[in-house]
Structures are given as structure tokens and as C-alpha cells.
Amino acid sequence: MSAADGVLRMTGVHKTYRLGRHEVRALRGVSLVVHPGEMLALTGPSGSGKSTILNIAGLIDTADSGEVFLGDRAVSALDSTAATLLRRDAVGFVFQGFNLVPVMTAFENVEFPLFLAGMATPARRKAVNDMLESVGLLEHAAHRPDALSGGQRQRLAIARALVKRPPLVIADEPTANLDSHTAEQILDLMREQGRAHRAAFLVATHDDRLLSRCDRQLHLTDGRIDSEPPAGMPRAA
């Protein structure tokens, strides 16, 4: 598989969770492709399988069957150490609750993934400063997250996700805790930065505001992707 085939490809993916005597079929033959620079929205009710797709795409969980490729790497063939290293290098995450380290400054939060990757200090500092400037937070570099607004914290989370230039960014309800004006700004920033860095965004959302900014949307019902969104649901542009 080449990069032209997509940053992420899932083919016929199944996932079942066992809770005591009960089985929950989270995914039932899901297939999708996400391309460089694309923002793809996953929609559907709670329990439809959106989070399971994100977890498998982000190498946090594994599929029971089917194929998952991240770039040209077959994810199912990786052991836990290789999967951890690929996740570190190739996937960024943006969460509803920001997931920033409270005792670190804005600069240190963005720097941390590069530190883990072993980047030399001078290059690391330049990359962090450039990234903070691109999201409008350079003047807040010395501030801790609790000194920032919700929108600023989500900007910081986007900077942290993108600073290592991953081909794939996983975003789980990234606008859920934001007011409408701030959400619009964050969505524009995600789209702008994704295209600038050729990063694919795979986004799970219930937020109709996000759909107009996405290139495509896939609607899930009971672990399957519907061929068309339900009637009345906004379609992505």
C-alpha cells in the first residue's frame, strides 16, 4: 500500500467486546479510507462504534479481524512495542477534555512529544515556537493550562497533536466544550493546519457545526457505516 491509497485504511474491520457473559459487537465489517489533508467526520448515536474506530485507528485498541493500514504499515502485524512507537510518531490526538498536563507550561506541553521522540534541544525549541505561533499562542508559551481559556487550551491541544507532523490526527468531540464562536475558530484552525501540514483528521462528533468544515462524513449505526446519512442530517461540503 502506498501513501496514495490513504493515510489510514480499514477494510472489513470487526470488533467485539465481552462484558461478563455478554458480547457487544462494536464494529461489523467497517471499511474506510482517509486521505492526506482530508477531514473526515464520523457521526452517529452513542454506541454506534465511533470511539472504537478512533481507538483502532489510533493504535490504542486492535481489531478482531479485517485489515488496518496506517500509511504502508499493516497494523495487525505489529507487536505492542512497534505499535507504541508507530502511535508516538504517526498519530496525534485532540480530545474533548484537552488532556493537557496541568503542571507544564504551554511550551512544555507542546514540547513533550518531541522530547519523547528524542529530538535535539535546538530543533525542538524551534519546532515548538513555530507551532505555537501558527496557532496564535506564542505569547502564552509560559502560561500553564489553567491560565488559558477553553479555546486557547484546545488550540494548545491542536499544536501538541501537530508538532511532530503526524500523518493522522484523531479528534474526539473536539468542539463539545466550546461556545459557538470559539468552536468556529477551532474548526477553521483544524482545517487550516491540517491542510498546511497534509495531516488527515479523523473526527468523531455530534456537533453539526463541524460537519460543514469536513470534506466527508460517514454515519454509523450499530457498528456499520450507512451508505447515506439519515434524512435531515447535514451533509459535509
Task: Give structural notes.
The chain has about 240 residues and is α/β, with parallel strands linked by helices. About 35% of the residues lie in helices and about 25% in strands. Strands 6-7-8-3-9-10 form a six-stranded mixed beta sheet. The protein has a four-stranded antiparallel beta sheet with strand order 2-1-4-5, with helices on one face. Helix 4 crosses helix 5 (about 150-160) and helix 5 packs parallel to helix 6 (about 180-195).
Task: Summarize the model shown.
It contains seven helices and ten strands. By secondary structure, the chain is of the alpha/beta class.
Spans of 5+ residues with little confidence (pLDDT < 50)? none
Gross CATH architecture: 3-Layer(aba) Sandwich
Domain tally: 1
Q: Under CATH, the topology is which?
A: Rossmann fold
Helix count, DSSP H or I runs of 4 or more residues: 7
Instruction: Indicate the proportion of strand residues.
Output: 25-35%
For the report, how would you describe the main beta sheet? 6 strands, mixed
Alpha-carbon distance between the termini?
28 Å
Strand order of the largest sheet: 6-7-8-3-9-10
Helix content: 25-40%
Structural class assignment = alpha/beta
